[in-house]
Write a structure and sequence with these properties.
Layout: H1 2-27, H2 38-50, E1 73-77, E2 83-91, E3 98-99, E4 112-116, E5 121-122
Parallel strand pairs: 2-4, 3-5
Antiparallel strand pairs: 1-2
């Protein structure tokens, strides 16, 4: 009799776990679709770090997870709502040594590129430029 009670408790416990696990997964909100294509997003992370934009002051202190905060970056949107970088315009007035990442050449839809007031831009310009 004791074994039957233990078995009943175990079955009830396991069925409770299975039901709870399934319920949570079914009710979980779907993941947010990306707003910018992966390649362009990674290039912008490279640009942010190589240009040391976080040191340029509030205007260029981007939230790398939010393309809307990327001051100086323009986008075009495809029919599915996915954004692609088509414009980079960065103007700066501080004396910070920085460089351009070679990954900028991976921006397939870049049509406008301008830099200004960056006296300590070091390194070679990307070949595509």
């Amino acid at each position: 009799m004791k074994t039957l009670k233990q078995l009943t408790v175990l079955i009830l416990f396991l069925s409770g776990l299975m039901t709870t696990g399934c319920d949570r997964e079914e009710n979980a909100p779907p993941p947010e679709p990306p707003t910018i294509n992966v390649t362009d997003s990674l290039v912008m992370v490279d640009l942010y770090h190589s240009m040391k934009l976080g040191e340029w002051g509030e205007a260029y202190n981007w939230d790398l997870t939010d393309p809307e905060s990327w001051i100086g970056i323009g986008f075009q949107t495809d029919e599915n709502g996915l954004k692609y970088v088509n414009k980079i315009s960065i103007v700066h007035g501080k004396n910070i040594e920085c460089s351009l990442p070679s990954s900028l050449g991976n921006l397939k839809y870049l049509s406008e590129f301008s830099l200004g007031g960056i006296p300590y831009l070091k390194g070679p310009l990307p070949e595509w430029l």
